[in-house]
Amino acid sequence: MNNVFITLVNPSHPGNIGAVARAMKNMSLQSLRLVKPQRALTEEAFARAAGADDILDAAERFETLSQAIADCQLVIGTSARVAVPDVFNIPMRAAASITHAASLAGQKIAILFGREHAGLTNEELAVCHYHAYIPSNPQFSSLNLAAATQIMCYELFLLTEQPMFVSEQTAEYADQEEIARLFAHARQTLEALHFYDPTNPRRLFPKLRALFNRTRLLKSEVAILRGILTAVDACEKPIY
Fold first, then answer.
1. Considering the entire predicted model, what is its pTM?
2. Tens digit of pLDDT for each residue in 84-120?
3. Is residue 28 part of a domain?
4. pLDDT tens sequence across 155-200
5. Looking at the DSSP assignment, which residues form a beta bridge with residue 62?
6. 20 in Cβ contact with 48 (< 8 Å)
7. CA distances (Å), origin 124, targets 12, 40, 189
8. CB under 8 Å to 123, separation ≥6 — which residues?
9. Could you tell me the CATH number of the domain that includes residue 228?
């Protein structure tokens, strides 16, 4: 599944990146993305990759998370937390099933893994359609980076050998770049309507993002929403 991108956000240790590459290759995944790694790849990274050098050599590097997920129609964040506010929380096995179905439908999927010491921030999880967690000992729930990646890749590998009916193969989901443009447009329009006050933002846009993430907007739906906003922008007087 080359359109499934294992995405490491700000990893600190090159050896862990190598171990992730090994876990991926064990389970036939190839596409690795690195978001602002704290150190360059070292000999230890390739040693711990144990033959998965091709994955490290081909790894894409990005300065920001938004750049790394811009072309993806589905984004799944992972953490040791069982619940994250404003994000649909699911166990890792369910996340693998959703990922597999999206992959068969030709979508690009980013699966995010956070920093070794702190994981993903709430702001990073907020851009995800789902938050996936691994059920584990609540008194000792934190897995190392490679172990967490291995579990997700294993669940995906099992699904590749099973036939699956995909009900939305023709659906064209909006990618994250299109969603970002929609949000920028909505912010501009709602400010002009005095519905949104940037000096007192409250939680309007996090709640809107959570709503849109739950529905997974299609390209056509984004176009409709942008059209509505454009029509509102063109009004010379209040429409209420």
1. 0.80
2. 777 888 999 999 999 999 999 999 999 999 998 888 9
3. yes
4. 999 998 765 544 545 578 898 899 999 989 998 998 888 888 888 7
5. 35
6. no
7. 17, 23, 25
8. none
9. 1.10.8.590
